[in-house]
Amino acid sequence: MENVAFYRYRCGEKPTLASRALADWLASTETDRSYLPMMQLRVAGKAAAVCTDTYYIAMEGKEILSRHWHGWGKHPNAVGNFGNFMTKEAARGKGIGRKMLDMWYEDLSFEQEQPIGLFCSAMNGYLIDLYGGYGFTQAVIKPTFSMLYKPLGDSPATFDELCHNYYAVAEKLTVKPADIQWRHEIDCLLKFAMSARGETFGLPGCKTLEESIVWPHIGDAQIVFTEKDRPVGWSFTGADGITHWQIHPDFKEQFEDSFSVKL
């Protein structure tokens, strides 16, 4: 590993050799991945005004070997997403990915505006064990993967406690246009919370809020907020003009009463 260099890149800053190599890697090898448009958008700095996105990148010369990312919206009590971790096959088993994760973990404590926690999905036991060494626990266990949660700041240690606090009783609900800075509150926290209650996440014509952001031509999305600016649901209106809603179970009755919508 003596010839391997490690970099951090805050998306939106001046492009670097590492960030250009990352953009090229994504464009050339990830074309079959649903996350590609969102990652390209973030790496290009197009979300930098409202989101904090940081990539950790390992390179040997001009070749990128490994990368991973975390990101969250620039607002209080944000929900963070973690992942996009990949090491090229030829570079695996040499400790490169772990050294990069160690670098990320040390940096995390110095972030001035930390989110309430980080969320990710892991498809195999190796990643569950690896991330577990950095404070992630299994929030929801599914047949083929696990949803993981890492508390930050004074957030509760368990996912159940976090949900109990986050989805507290609201005095008022409002609906606002969807914005990329709230994507993780919907596609991570709400998805995990609904999965923990045995409910399927997603809406007809739009499986995730991410889809409505990277493909705005498919329709319009909105987010349901409490008076504390905590998203508790979302909607999608497709080309047919029909609006579908998905609300956290604890707020369904209140939402129906407030907006005269039968869910």
Please write out the topology:
Blueprint: E1 4-10, H1 17-29, H2 36-43, E2 51-60, E3 63-73, E4 80-87, H3 96-108, E5 117-122, H4 125-132, E6 137-141, E7 146-151, H5 159-166, E8 173-177, H6 183-196, H7 209-214, E9 220-226, E10 231-237, E11 243-247, H8 252-259
Parallel strand pairs: 4-5
Antiparallel strand pairs: 1-2, 2-3, 3-4, 5-7, 6-7, 8-9, 9-10, 10-11
Helix pairs in contact: 1-2
Keywords:
263 residues, alpha+beta, seven-stranded mixed sheet, four-stranded antiparallel sheet, globular
Plain-language structure description:
By secondary structure, the chain is α+β, with helices and mostly antiparallel strands. It is built from 8 helices and 11 strands. The chain has helices at 17-29, 36-43, 96-108, 125-132, 159-166, 183-196, 209-214, 252-259, and strands at 4-10, 51-60, 63-73, 80-87, 117-122, 137-141, 146-151, 173-177, 220-226, 231-237, 243-247. A 7-stranded mixed sheet has the order 1-2-3-4-5-7-6, with helices on both faces. A 4-stranded antiparallel sheet has the order 8-9-10-11, with helices on both faces. It is globular. The model has no long low-confidence stretch (mean pLDDT 95).
